[in-house]
Amino acid sequence: MKQVDLSKYSNEWYKPGSIIKRVLWYITNIIFFKSSIPYPYKIKTALLRIFGAKVGNSVIIKPNVNIKYPWFLKIGNNVWIGEGVWIDNLTMVEIGNNVCVSQGAYLLTGNHDFKKETFDLIVRPITIEDGCWVGAKAIVCPGVKMKSHSVLTVGSVLTKDTEPFGIYQGNPATFKKKRVIEK
User: Fold this and answer.
1) What is the C-alpha separation between 153 and 175, in angstroms, rounded?
2) How far apart are CA 178 and CA 183, in angstroms?
3) Disulfide engineering: 92 pairs with which of 23, 125, 127, 172, CB 3.0-4.6 Å?
4) What residues does 81 pair with on adjacent strands?
5) H or E element, residue 101
6) What is the CATH number of domain 18-178?
7) CB-side exposure of 126: number of CA atoms within 13 Å?
8) Which phi and psi angles does 4 have, rounded to 5°?
9) What is the C-alpha separation between 66 and 85, in angstroms, rounded?
10) Cα separation, 115 vs 18, whole angstroms
């Protein structure tokens, strides 16, 4: 029976940006984003834009947020990103308007092909449409689309697309009920 052989692993095909760009971002990320210092939101959004992110207005980014590559990030207007969020965007992550990504949430765009001896890297984008809420310590897996105003509850793991206005819970997250927004 074949076994995994990590000495054969290669992700040479994956080119996320020049080494200089990545090192500059790494340093910026440590100083301004992964830090506990509550830098003003406007400084953080300006830095993201300098590094190629598309960022809307009134975006709140709390301390201790880790963003892998801002050039693979699009954030809409009126977005809240809570403390300890990890946006592990090896490829595109799109966050719509009026989205809340709560503390400790993990947006994961990369995985490995466990069926291959070489344990190949797999990357798939994430889309979080307008009005969604990713609960605290929840995980959104590669290739997932959270459709308009859907909710992923605390500590849940989303492995498949949601339906609009659906509330999802568990590991793996499943539909629980419809979200009704009151005035």
Assistant:
1) 11
2) 16
3) 125
4) 61, 101
5) strand 100-101
6) 2.160.10.10
7) 26
8) -65, 135
9) 6
10) 30
